[in-house]
Amino acid sequence: MPNCPQCLKSFSSARRVAAHLAQPKSKCHAWQRERLGLSLHSSSLTVGSTPNSSPSLDGFHDLPACDGFDVVQPVHDAIDTFVPFGDSDFDGEEGIWNPSVAESAALLAELGQGRQIQPFSSAGEVFDTGETFLKRFELDPFSSFRRTNLYYPFSGLNDWEMANFLLRSKMSMAKIDEFLSLGSVRTLPLSFWTAKELRSRIELLPTAPRWNYRIIATSYPTKSPAILYFRDSLECIEALFNHPYYADHMMYTPFRVFTSAERVVREFSEWMSGDVAWRMQSKLPPGATLCGVILSSDKTHITNMCGGKVAHPLLISLANIKMAVRNKASSHAFLLNALMPVVEFIHPVHRICSVLEARLFHECLDIVLQPLKVAARIGRMMSDPAGNLRHCFTPLAAYILSRIQCDPNDVERYFALCKDFRLSGVAEPFWRNWPLSDPANFLTPEPLHHWYRKFWDHDVQWCKNALGAPELDFRYSVLHPIVGMRHFKDGITALKQVTGRAQRDMQRFMVAVIGGAASRDVVIAVRALMDFRYLAQAPRITSIIQDRIKATLAEFHNHKDKITEEGLRRGAESGSALNHWFIPKLELMQSVAPSISELGAPVQWSADTTEHAHIEVIKEPASTTNHQNYDTQICRYLDRVERCRLFETATRLSALGDADDTHDQDLAVEDDGAEDDELNMADDEDAAAILKDIWSSRRSVPDFFGVAEKLRAALPGSIPHPVRTFSSGATALRVNRRPSIKRISIDKAAELFDIPDLRGALADYLSREGPHAQNFHSFGRQRRSPPGAHLPFSDLQVWYKVRLQQKSYHDSSSLEPVFTINACPPNRTWKYGRHDAAILQVDARHEWPASGLTGHTVVDVRLIMCPVSPRGLRLVWDDRLLVYVRRFDIVPQRQADVDLATGLHVLKRATRASGEFLGDVLPLDQIKSYAHLVPRFGEAADNRFTSTNGFHSAQSFWLNRYFDKEFYYALSL
């Protein structure tokens, strides 16, 4: 746990260490101030302007407001008036930085023990005390009124909650007026009675970055004016940098991670762990904080009918926020920075219209991003979530464009010359004067459109042509269904409007589906690309895995010729065979492996989050409009919502602080101002809970591990037995509180579930248990008890399913979605019962998932049960949940444990010498993971297969490692 560097007290996070150091009357705060004072006087800033003299951009807002927005006319040459930093001789390679105990502990807690961390020295320093989120709230012009009424301009908490509900309910003004006119509502002591009054009060709340607009002059006529709606990009970055929700998820210093003390193998994860961030930091003055800007822009449809209105949002985020938080849409880490004008140019040549649109887009970006360019050149003093003042620089990258020798205003001739160089015709790209801005760095790999879309456009078509559409569809339709995942009951080839999620779901099964049907080289080529995608999606990638990613792509190229030889690559429209490999998305894959060491894990640059953000910042606001002038109404709606969300955050945190101050005063009377650290930690937890409630998703992933820990700490006799939720290692399991069958005799259960040796298996289990409960059991021993063995109990409780949750392979603090393992008896739908496969631990020396299949085996889960003790008797083992399973054996392949074409294990059901299936009873907590098995269909699938009988009827199976990324990493890394 992080410690205070002065008093060495332990805290649960680095944020709480910072809060502890910020206590104004503590000795630790005085020590920190003294240390910061020395740091300020000893810092050797050799540039012309000190951090405290950063230029203000407030002059951009001096023009009068118009219609609720600021009309902004920025000066294009403003950025050229500042002198850039010269190249620093210090590159950070030899610098030695001694991080504080708290900083080291926070990094190690995030990255895992055993790793070696090399932070960039003299980076991310704190220069003074700045403003926290609440401090800025107190600087609002109406803060004097909030000393007596925290919820001003509303009369109180109830008044504010009603206003907040109405404004965020997506109700139209007419509907709000109708609601407020209800008799029951009229009895409430509200301060507003119409939607117009409500919105006028919202205008008095503290504002987020303010919206502006500007009419862009164009050199060619357009069908409608080009109006740019935007916010100050630097204010957006500052709002993210200062936000309290990201306090525990913010990075301030580039770093390098090695897997061992020898520092041979690098590990790449966050953007800050890559070489680009390291090089950028080396170009900045000592003590500066690097704030990497992330931009995302893509057109999105507002309506598909009524003219098909289109919006072109520009989203902005901060690379310093950890990708696990930044890539969650519910974290609101991407802000809408601008709505780019979408206009139609009037020109007889359609291609020239595209060039003019691209030029307009870059011109607008140049306007919107100008404040960031200024900050990237001279820096800006910004406060982090803990209120520490840092000298921040906001680069995107650096790139010098090679210009064509022609007048850019002569669009036709300029574009004709650009075509020879395959250039777009944009004469002045937006990054041309942005310090440290390089397209080779900021044009990152993008998994959603580059990988998943390529799989649907090409890989699926190759497989369809190899097997035939009917055969491929049939194989997908008879796959064993997984609870919570899509089952393609009608196949995949006839799907329309395929989303990225559907493409992911298809990838889970493709390799196992085509195995044994397509030719060996085709299967290898498809499997190699699948390995490429899965390895490149890992949130942490070592230099060894980076080499494997290169190798998988090389393997594809070594076997791809078979695809063209068999005529599987065909034109989308003509249907004729193609002999070339001109696939841009395939070519882009060449840059993925080199980009990992430069920019960190590619998965953080996926457009999934920004595509989902379009729903929140464009589609939902548009749905509340009158379908006229969408852009202005979208901006107004977002402004109101952000004001409400920020005001709710500030008032709830302030109310918590006021309660703490009252308690502290009472405590001071009793204990002469003694500090209660446990109480402070509880207060921090309350604040974190408030922030999570406002800024994170309400549909969080269940936490079986937390429930299991609470049950484990419960007082004896306070919870029912057997315990329904428990954890073992990296796996937690839960069964329903009420069993599916409350009481059934052993013999009836054996008949119902078709387990002839159930009684003998239970007897063997008890003999292994002995007089004391044993925590671990091996599997596969010879059956010693007879079928009719006597047991000290006669009845069982039975559950039809168990839910299983695992910790992430790469981050033990992250929880994965829940899988359901079924063990249902036969019924009308499932003639042979519904059973799922699982991974069972059979060797206590090997833990899942680190050891993979070593020390584990694949089993068929047939019965989940708990013995019922005879009345008046309590046995030591009657509170343990048990499971009857049947084992699968791995069929050895030529010179390997896996099939060389598919890379999958081949399984068959294990049998005893007598020919009966090899089954046994073991503790339920030895199950470690869900497993998905796919029948080996061969060249042609048996048409008697269905999704309900394939698991029972097939003679051999593929162990499908691609059904889940976490399962893939456990078996492949």
Number of DSSP-assigned strands: 31
Approximately what portion of the residues adopt beta-strand conformation?
Answer: 15-25%
What is the alpha-carbon Rg in Å? 32 Å
Mean pLDDT across all amino acids: 83
Distance between the termini: 29 Å
Q: Describe the largest sheet.
A: 10 strands, antiparallel
Give the structural class: alpha+beta
Unreliable segments of 5+ consecutive residues = 35-67, 73-102, 397-405, 667-676
Q: Into which percent range does the helicity of residues fall?
A: 25-40%
Shape: globular
Individual helix count:
32
How would you describe what is shown here?
The chain is of the alpha+beta class. Helices cover 36% and strands 15% of the residues. The protein contains 32 helices and 31 strands. Strands 19, 20, 24, 25, 26, 27, 28, 29, 30 and 31 form a 10-stranded antiparallel beta sheet that branches. Strands 1, 2, 5, 6, 10, 11, 12 and 13 form an 8-stranded mixed beta sheet that branches. Helix 16 crosses helix 17, helix 20 packs antiparallel against helix 21 and helix 21 packs antiparallel against helix 24 (592-599). It is globular, with a radius of gyration of 32 Å. The model is unreliable at 35-67, 73-102, 397-405 and 667-676 (pLDDT under 50).
